[in-house]
Amino acid sequence: MARATPYIFARFKVGFEEDDWDGARLFKALRKVKGQRFDQPYSRSTVPDTLAMAPASRTIGGFQVLHWMVGHKVMVRTAIDYDDLNHVLKVNTFPGEGVRYEDFIAIPALGVMAISDRTGEQHIGAKNAAARLQTVVRKGFPGAEIILDLGVSEDDVEAALKQWTVREFSFTVRPFNPTVRRQGQKVHEALVDEKGAVFRGVIKAQPGEGLEAKEGGFINEAIGLSRAGYGQIGFTGETPEGQVAQFKKPEFSQDKNKNQKVRDKGQPLKVFIEPQPSAKKDIEEIAKALISFYDRPASKN
């Protein structure tokens, strides 16, 4: 049975300094460099092995939606064998073939995109694909740059909590030090009273229900502690379109500043798309999820 495909949501800007590209210019640029191979920085390959492929443009929900792929041309493959005479492992190299890739679905008017994040022999993962897209832009158009932010903002996290049907909420928090803040004060006081240093937990919704961050409730308290640098949160749920979505809880530290640095960097927001009847339908589903999440006044660039 085919598994759902995870996509990482990201914000982006592309173009030259003080000259951002709109959707038409980005599409034109992708068409110009499609199939060309570029040297990937820090790659062990001795020949160009990064390329953009098959750009396409269409309108979904009133927005121009671009789809393309970024790939790694496999030039060499390796195989491990066992030398039973010398009792050592041997690494053998052979000429490679094929392309490993990921999909990009972008809505330039909103400055957002989704990057597939798959594993296995045919794929390279979202972070690798994002780095290779930057290479295509920089080397295909000297002086141009694409800025990709694969970590969602604090506003996006709170928007997800409001928009999604949250099924599970996880947290790790500690008491304030030294100042008590309003949001999170109840949990702070309980931990101090019981001489607690760290509080970890998972809240799961009743079957068929969704969790809510109500004023004075546990989730709202944990959010307050997290926002102040005294905790980390994560959650899973469903988008309004019924897709499984996830914001993974970052690593927690007793050091407030370390927690805030992790939060400032941002964590990936993943949406899982169930197998559709066609690739065209896959693109429609992820485009609708992007529009639903990012087409809100406070989110637009």
Secondary structure topology:
Layout (H helix, E strand, L loop, with lengths): L4 E12 L2 E2 L2 H11 L16 E11 L2 E11 L2 E8 L4 E8 L3 E9 L4 E5 L9 H15 L4 E5 L4 H10 L1 E9 L11 H9 L5 E6 L13 H10 L3 E8 L5 E4 L8 H10 L3 E5 L5 H16 L7
Antiparallel strand pairs: 1-2, 1-8, 1-9, 1-14, 3-4, 4-7, 5-6, 7-8, 10-11, 10-12, 12-13, 13-14
Helix pairs in contact: 4-5
Distance from N terminus to C terminus (CA atoms, Å) equals: 39 Å
Count every helix, treating DSSP H or I runs of 4 or more residues as helices.
Answer: 7
Low-confidence stretches: none
The value of Rg in angstroms is 22 Å
Task: Give the overall form.
Answer: globular
Instruction: Write down how many β-strands occur, each being a DSSP E stretch of 2 or more residues.
Output: 14
How would you spell out the order of helices and strands? Answer: EEHEEEEEEHEHEHEHEEHEH
Percentage of residues assigned to helices: 25-40%
Give the amount of beta strand, in percent.
Answer: 25-35%
Concise structural overview:
With 301 residues, the protein is of the alpha+beta class.
Properties at a glance:
27% helix; 301 residues; alpha+beta; 12-stranded antiparallel β-sheet
Notes on the structure:
The chain has seven helices and 14 strands. With 301 residues, it is α+β, with helices and mostly antiparallel strands. Strands 1, 2, 3, 4, 7, 8, 9, 10, 11, 12, 13 and 14 form a twelve-stranded antiparallel sheet that branches. A two-stranded antiparallel ribbon has the order 5-6. Strand 3 and strand 4 form a beta hairpin. Helix 4 crosses helix 5 (218-227). The radius of gyration is 22 Å and the shape is globular. The model has no long low-confidence stretch (mean pLDDT 88).
